[in-house]
Amino acid sequence: MRSGRFLLGQQLIYLRDLLRELVLRDLKLRYKGSVLGIAWSLLNPLAQLLVFGLVFSTILPLNIPNYTAFLFSGLLVWSWFQSSLFAATTVIVDGRSLIKRPGFPVALLPVVTVMANLVHFVLALPVLLLFLLVTGLPLHGTVWLLPLLLGIQFLFTVSIAYFLAAVHVTFRDTQHLVGVFLLLLFYLTPIFYDGSVVPERLQPLYQLNPLFHLLAAYRAILMTGQWPDFAALGLITAVSTGLLFIGFRVFGRASLTFVEEL
Length: 262
What we know:
Layout: H1 2-30, H2 40-59, H3 67-89, H4 91-94, H5 96-99, H6 108-134, H7 146-170, H8 174-188, H9 203-206, H10 210-224, H11 230-254, H12 258-261
Helix pairs in contact: 1-6, 2-3, 3-6, 3-7, 3-8, 3-10, 6-7, 7-10, 7-11
């Protein structure tokens, strides 16, 4: 009994260390030879912030208070989600050298992509908090709920990542379909506009989008100091857990033929 527990503990430690090394490897390879390095991960949302901020605060004003902080928070949350799914879709095909190693835990790879992009998100958080302070918004006590939201978004993103990674191995058009889907979802998610302006008849449809509630929760705890909708967050967590269970099983079955497909 003790021997079994010891072996399980050793295996968990091995997987934890391997996950850390794979995330570091992903970050190093992504910015190898780059002058700015990981700073590039922040330049994209900042460029979007500049363009959307100019358009929707000057040319077509939306009259949203503290619009810069409002927009930047939405862009960072979206960037983590979008980048993770793009990377997860091709992670098996791109990691064929690892897949072909006997005994390699293939199921770690989708988690690695989401976690690597989580690192970018966490590194950008101080910039977001600086934006809040510069625009006159104090940090509220609710900011301590941030790890909870990170955990829920991580769970939701990984649950989708397993499906995409498994399907793309046999259906290589998946990455293009994901690109189209994410482009449409960007405009159907209240990233640069307030969700309250959505017509009432469309609200039920909009609220089927988990990002709708996650964005509202991030902005509630960071910008207004209000409690998020725990009922909505609980539902997202439950659905994501179910999807993760199904996605992991689908991925596990598909992984039996990865070497042949690659």
